[in-house]
Amino acid sequence: MLTEFGKIFVFILLAVFFVLIAFFLAKLIRPSRPTREKLETYECGENPEGSPWVRFNLRFYVVALIFIIFDVEVVLLFPWALSYQDYGIYGFLVGIIFLLVLGLGMAYEWRKGDLEWARPKQIPPKLKKIKEELTEAVME
Fold first, then answer.
1. What domains, with CATH codes, occur in the chain?
2. Cα–Cα distances in Å, from 134 out to 125, 130, 138?
3. Which of 28, 36, 91, 124 could lock onto 84 through a cystine, CB 3.0 to 4.6 A?
């Protein structure tokens, strides 16, 4: 007789076996007629230009993550808005605290500059100016 862990192990083995069998059968059944056009990089119906190994700006990912975070939090506000009266002052205060934390997160992202699409270019310090400042400091 199998223990509970033994049943889980058998279930995992069956799942892995099923996936391997499905992949093997798919490889046997599918047609394999590669052409030059099929092997090209797909760009939403457009003809690809240049190398597919282009470095994307990290801003795309940061903006997407910020959107997902705040979008999920706003979705959580809808049920709260519908049912906070059922919980009285406690439900109202919990929602207000949630909104304050959400506002603090938004203020932090805004202050950090992650909501700006094009950040202002930082001007690196000039070596000549630093050299002058150092020589003045040494002379004193």
1. 4-112 (1.20.58)
2. 13, 6, 6
3. 91
